[in-house]
Specification:
By secondary structure, the protein is of the alpha+beta class. Helix content is 71%, strand content 16%. It is built from two helices and three strands; from the N terminus they run αββαβ. Strands 2-1-3 form a three-stranded antiparallel beta sheet. A hairpin with a 2-residue loop joins β1 and β2 (102-105). α1 (6-85) crosses α2. The protein is rod-shaped, with a radius of gyration of 38 Å. The mean pLDDT is 83.
Length: 128
């Protein structure tokens, strides 16, 4: 049997240390990847939950605003109808809606839709 030389011993020790270092790096990398993935999933889940709750509140607020606007439009329609049927000779026409640049002259149905869904002011002209 051959004797072990210093070079062979150093080479074996170096290879064992190399394998040990690679194992440590792999284990740490694996643990970091697992912990980061878990944190990312939890953060994404929390973000989605917060967005869902805020959107639900926005929908409730918008629904209340739409119902209020519909009620006001129905009241206005009823008042215009009462004025027309009362025989006062009042004739009203929907001109359009008020935009950022003034009066936007559009059809009556389109004006109602703009007022209802976009919150613009409805413009009426009446004559006796």
């Amino acid at each position: 049997m051959q004797e072990l030389s210093k070079f062979k011993v150093i080479t074996v020790v170096f290879l064992c240390l190399f394998v040990f270092v690679i194992g440590v790096i792999y284990t740490n990398t694996k643990e970091m990847a697992e912990s980061n993935t878990g944190e990312k999933i939890n953060n994404a889940r929390e973000k989605i939950t917060n967005e869902f709750h805020s959107e639900r509140e926005n929908v409730k607020t918008n629904q209340a605003n739409i119902e209020d606007l519909n009620s006001r439009l129905n009241d206005l329609r009823q008042q215009v109808h009462e004025l027309k049927s009362s025989g006062t000779g009042m004739n009203c026409k929907i001109r359009g809606v008020m935009g950022s640049n003034g009066l936007e002259d559009i059809s009556g149905e389109a004006a109602f839709e703009e007022a209802r869904y976009n919150g613009k002011d409805l413009v009426l002209t009446c004559k006796f």
